[in-house]
Amino acid sequence: MNIELLRDHCVSKNGVTEECPFGDDTLVFKVKGKMFCLISLSDPNFCNLKCAPEYAIELREKYAEVQPGYHMSKKHWNTVNFKGALTDKEILHWIDDSYNLVIAGLPVKLKQELLEK
Predict the structure, then answer these.
(1) Helix, strand, coil share of the chain (percent; to 5)
(2) Is residue 113 part of a domain?
(3) How far apart are CA 29 and CA 31, in angstroms?
(4) Would the CA dihedral through 65, 60, 17, 113 be positive or negative?
């Protein structure tokens, strides 16, 4: 995985914005103001992704490259290391899961706005 592929995938999704709310080093992708993916610009070998708690534990147990979220809620976030055996397809799938998880938690009105676009 490289940062360009990750960025292109994230911004291709409906309603996504990219920001640097934590300083110039961390690129954050949001949908309707809620974060679903974070990546360091100085060390783009890792990203943080939102994850359902049970699935987060399952991924950590199955993949050495998946760890509890760095500087995030360990219950709801995973840090994914791109240096390892993970495929781009797996990581892109987890980005999709993260995006969909955030959308699922949005109020009905915001979900409807996404569907109308």
Answers:
(1) 40, 25, 35
(2) no
(3) 7
(4) positive
What is the structure's pLDDT at 18? 97
Q: How many domains in the chain? A: 1
Range of the domain at 90: 3-105
Query: Could you read off the pLDDT of 47-91 as tens digits, one per residue?
Result: 999 999 999 999 999 999 999 999 999 999 999 999 999 999 999
Within the chain, strands assigned E span 16-19, 26-31, 34-40, 46-50, 66-68, 77-81
CA distance 92 to 116: 24
Scanning the structure block, which residue is given the tokens 């699935």? 55
Distance (Å) of CA 80 to CA 25, 93, 110, 114: 17, 12, 28, 27
